[in-house]
Amino acid sequence: MSKKLFDFCIGNPPYQESRATTKDIPVYNDFMDVAYNVASDVLLITPARFLFNAGATPKAWNEKMLNDPHFKVVDYIPNSNAIFANTDIKGGVAITYRSDRNKYEPIGEFISNPMLRDIVGKVKKHGYDSLSNYMYGGRADLKYNDLFLETYPNYVSNRIKQIQKKKPSVTSLPPNEEYELRNRAFEDAPYAFKEEIEKENETEYYRILGLFGMKRVYRWLEKKYLTMRYPDNNNVQHYKVFISKASGTGAFGEKISEPIIGVPNEFSTPTFIGIGRFEKEIEAKNASNYIKTKFARALLSVLKITQDIVPGKFKYVPVQDFSDDSDIDWSKSIHDIDLQLYRKYGLSAEEVAFIEKNVKEME
Length: 363
Prior knowledge:
By secondary structure, this protein is an alpha+beta fold.
């Protein structure tokens, strides 16, 4: 092993770089890599999001750190105010140590709470398929086509004007961005969407869930203006459950925004993600009740350490049979469904008490 410039490095590197035209980007990962290159032993305090494979640091870099046998977490502080007064760092902060001389068990999956680690272990031993494998979203299932842009030739310039309200230096959209139906779709092009249509014309339109003025609303857009993004992998013509893609603060066990049942011929803007592609409405309703359980939201909170609720955050939430043949009686109350799930996965009285105490109730 070649000797490095320094024996020991201690630091609190810069966390992010501000950009005028795009989101701020993290830079602490670059400083961490530099520190490891120049010092044999490195102790740093940084944002902790990467430990949960969250945030904007590169996923490959996150995986590298989580599987580095020379790297360990000395302390995890979920509330950054405990370290930096009046500073809100989503996901908390971590004190980490890396040593060329020492080897540790690779972190792999970072679960700071030992009770949660045991619960996740029981779910895994039971044999499970992750609910994240049955989620749709991130980008809208449909996107605008050339006919839309021809019919509304001012759409691109109007959208740029909307962006310039916050970022005046923006003068153009990224490549192919003009086809994307974004979070602010209803405000970007209010002239294209209809609030109501005649019942007999519904087959010619898609019904779209989105936000307008921060309120959940539905709008209609003619099908001829839209192209399916993934023709063989979507749930547009199925029943599903819509949940907000961002909710809360990332606090453990917090409530999430109320789920919405979606019916065939509906999709949403990227403000929401869709769960499932069910043949029957009752299956979607049962899935909605499952998402409200304390059991499911406790497992969601393992990785949901910010407001983001992308599909990957549901990695440890096991999918269930939501049909009438299920081993869970979905006709019961949310609390009773929780009790059935605790028994199914063999949770101890202490583990049940932990969830019941720390996860807020949803009905």
